Known about the structure:
Blueprint: H1 2-22, H2 26-34, H3 39-76, E1 90-99, E2 102-105, E3 117-121, E4 124-129, E5 134-143, E6 149-157, E7 160-171, E8 174-179, E9 197-205, H4 208-215
Helix pairs in contact: 1-3
Organism: Novipirellula herctigrandis
Protein name: TIGR03067 domain-containing protein
InterPro entries: CHP03067_Planctomycetes
Amino acid sequence: MASLYACLSSVLAAFTRMDNQLFVPRDVHRSAASGLPSPRRLQSTKQSNHHSDNVMRTLFVGVVFSLSVFVNAWADQPQESKRQDPQLDGVWLLKSIEKSGEKVEGDGLPERMRGTTRTIAGAEMVLSRGGGTRQLNLSIVVDTSRKPKHLDITAERNGKSRVLKCVYEIKDGMLRIAENATERPDSFKTDTSTRTMVTTYTRKSKPAHQQTREAEPSDQPTSR
Length: 224
């Protein structure tokens, strides 16, 4: 990022130098040797320089705008270290659904949603419903530098991709995912003014590597 801003500063400095060089009337440089320029020549020079002024300023604005778009696009990309969240790994069991300010859980859940799980391992997610009889393989990208954290869930079907832009949080052993069909939510609010739906999951099991690490005996000597 620092190099991009340095590049932008260099471009600004270059245009400033060009502005100072191009917009000084040519006849002014020669006035000491050939006398004062005629009014007609001076007027023509002013018009020419005014046209050059407009052209250069238009180019200047275009370059600055292009660089700004590039910098912003680069900044929007999550850094590699922020693309994964080990806390997501594991099997998550659906606990509740909240929409339009109303929350249902337990026996109040729609029958088709009961027992729904999300199994996450790195950049892969498996959505399972109906006791595992219906499964959907998905891919995910996270950005943990955002608040709330971003979660993009991609589904592939018939050669086409559909990306659901969500936010999530893990708190007190619960995973909350806020999703919206039209845009990424900026909070977990679900009042009637939004189309946001929040699903809450409890951790059913941890990933295998965490279970193995917890099962290993401690190297620390026990106190007596």
